[in-house]
Design brief:
This protein has two helices and five strands; from the N terminus they run βαββαββ. With 87 residues, the protein is an alpha+beta fold. It has a single domain (2-75), classed as Alpha-Beta Plaits. The protein has a five-stranded mixed sheet, covered by helices on one side. β2 and β3 form a beta hairpin. The two termini are 20 Å apart. 26% of the residues are buried. The mean pLDDT is 96.
């Protein structure tokens, strides 16, 4: 799953909160700021788990910072072994 979040998503602890939420799910991947002001989330795992993770993000206090989410799905690469914040 690849998600691009737009809105007021940088400078508000967005990546750290997503990382914290990820620990409650069987997902691997990364979250990072993009130069255009969006945040990119890449997560791998079983689809129901990924959907639950994404729902947790949109139901958290982060929801007020999200104006738009662009979600795309593709087969996992298997390259991720944990969940990390890319600085």
């Amino acid at each position: 799953m690849q998600v691009h979040f737009s809105g007021h998503v940088q400078g508000v602890g967005f990546r750290y909160r997503v990382h914290s939420l990820a620990t409650g799910y069987f997902v691997a991947g990364s979250v990072r700021n993009l130069a255009d002001g969006r945040v990119e989330l890449i997560a791998e795992g079983l689809r129901p788990e990924l959907e639950s993770f994404l729902e947790a993000i949109t139901r958290s206090e982060l929801a007020g910072h999200i104006r738009n989410m662009d979600v795309s799905w593709s087969p996992g690469s298997g390259l991720y072994k944990g969940f990390e914040i890319i600085r």
